[in-house]
Design brief:
Largest sheet: 5 strands, mixed
CATH architecture of the largest domain: 3-Layer(aba) Sandwich
Distance between the termini: 56 Å
Number of helices: 12
CATH class of the largest domain: Alpha Beta
Radius of gyration: 22 Å
CATH topology of the largest domain: D-Maltodextrin-Binding Protein, domain 2
Mean pLDDT: 85
Low-confidence stretches: none
């Protein structure tokens, strides 16, 4: 069976389109279409059904994906197995990915904890943007951390890591900084920083819409870290979780809870079909230690921040 066809099949399932899958393998759409047709002929399976411009795996296609993913993990491990059989030392490796705010507040402190106990382990880290998550899920990573995930993750396991309240982040001395809480109507009267797209922007729009307020951000930043840096310079407000202010220095910001309360969950993502190794389990434990420390710091700043 053609390994390239199997790789193409996995990419198309994860991206939902033939063109996007072909692009990952530097193939033309016509060549990719022929390769997929050959795979269906070889297997005797109907792998996809068409939904508008998207391709969705059939029931048997989804089951075949599971088998292909498991097999390709084994194929990609063959060079390491060969070196091991040849007597060469194989350095243990851990592959990590997250966005910038989780990198600074969770991943890197956890790397510090982990390295003290596992100095021999090679660690590879990739800093990701939200729009990269669907691509990253096709890569060979061991642990990813994010608050934003594509809607369909049938082949990956999500483990809740951290629940934090969304807060209005602003410079100290801002007119709203002394308020016990703020709502969309309060925020609408002030300059706002927002992301141009993504789940956090979608949630902000729903918040304003439910309050009957208009959302017109004056400033845009494509990541939370730079958005928080911008608001300090221009005296604006950004709605996000407390991770960036905690990492940068909470003494520079005022964090005002929202009403009604809105919680944001951060999860660990791991490949569901790959058995958990000792290293993966240890790194997840380090992340959980960091998450508990963050929750204690947020509790000290905001008090009881459970939904209400």
């Amino acid at each position: 069976m053609n390994i390239q066809a199997i790789r193409l099949f996995l990419h198309v399932v994860q991206r939902g389109s033939l063109a996007a899958g072909a692009q990952q393998l530097n193939m033309s759409p016509s060549a990719a279409s022929r390769l997929l047709a050959g795979l269906e002929h070889t297997t005797g399976l109907k792998l996809f059904s068409r939904d508008g411009h998207s391709l969705r795996p059939t029931t048997e296609g989804a089951q075949f994906f599971n088998e292909c993913y498991r097999v390709l993990i084994a194929v990609d491990e063959l060079p390491r197995a060969a070196r091991r059989l040849a007597g060469a030392a194989v350095q243990p490796r851990l592959r990590l990915t997250s966005g910038s705010r989780h990198a600074k507040s969770l991943i890197m402190p956890a790397v510090g904890r982990f390295a003290k106990r596992n100095a021999e382990v090679e660690i590879l880290f990739h800093l990701a943007q939200v729009q990269e998550l669907d691509r990253l899920l096709s890569e060979r990573f061991d642990i990813a951390v994010s608050a934003s995930w594509p809607a369909i993750l049938p082949f990956f396991e999500l483990t809740p890591l951290l629940d934090l309240p969304a807060v209005a982040v602003m410079p100290k001395g801002h007119p709203l900084a002394a308020h016990p809480f703020v709502g969309a109507a309060d925020l609408a009267a002030h300059a706002l920083v927002a992301t141009p797209m993504g789940p956090m922007r979608d949630d902000l729009e729903r918040m304003f819409q439910s309050a009957g307020a208009d959302l017109h951000p004056q400033y845009m930043a494509n990541d939370i870290e730079h958005g928080c840096a911008m608001l300090l310079q221009v005296g604006a407000i950004m709605v996000t979780d407390p991770l960036v202010p905690l990492a940068v220095g909470s003494d520079r910001f005022a964090l005002v809870p929202l009403k009604p309360a809105r919680m944001m969950q951060t999860c660990i993502c791991t490949p569901a079909l790959k058995p958990e190794s000792r290293l993966t389990a240890e790194f997840k434990a380090c992340l959980q230690e960091e998450a508990r420390a963050i929750q204690e710091r947020v509790g000290a700043l905001l008090g009881d921040y459970g939904p209400g």
